[in-house]
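Weekly sync notes, structure subgroup
Attendees: PM, AL, DS (notes)

Item 1: joint prediction request from the bench team. They want all three components modeled as one assembly rather than separately. Inputs as received:
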Amino acid sequence: MQYWLFKTEPSTYSIDDLKREKTTEWYGIRNYQVRNFLRDAIKIGDIVLIYHSNAEEIGVVGTAVVASDAYPDTEQFKEGSKYYDPKSKKENPSWLSRDISFVSQFPEIVLLADLKKEKTLKNMLILRPGNRLSITPLKEKEFKHILTLAQKNKAC
DNA sequence: GCCAACGTTGGC
DNA sequence: GCCAACGTTGGC
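Output from the run, pasted for the record:
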């Protein structure tokens, strides 16, 4: 079992959208390192934290589970799509997607500002300045710690 | 293959 | 809206 953090801009796709759709194609990955995570490292059944970036409230908002193997990103072939890539050929697609399924939405967002206060999380990749990967691996310890923070919020 | 210019990400 | 950090592009 592995843990991952998936970033999304809620104005584009939020935890609410995922909750409504239940399962979605996680498309639009246009970074080779992240593409390789999707292809090689990520497995069906891995647990995902959903993170809202570039938003009024930045932080972790819920959990999901990886629900498919990697397959060609459907947007890369759609002319006019923001994610259209004319260099990508159907017989050798550049970009991959996986499906993820909604698991839970936290009662309250766990804010980035609060994550930064936690010693346990100080090595978490998302907190590293300049980190721009939209998917990052999480240690089990980090994942569980964030769940604990989410539970604490509920108690307040 | 180097590297400057440019574009994008993402927190503030 | 600003800007630092970083990836990508393209001329040489």
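Discussion: The longest strand of chain A covers residues 96-111.
Action: AL to compare against the crosslinking data before next sync.
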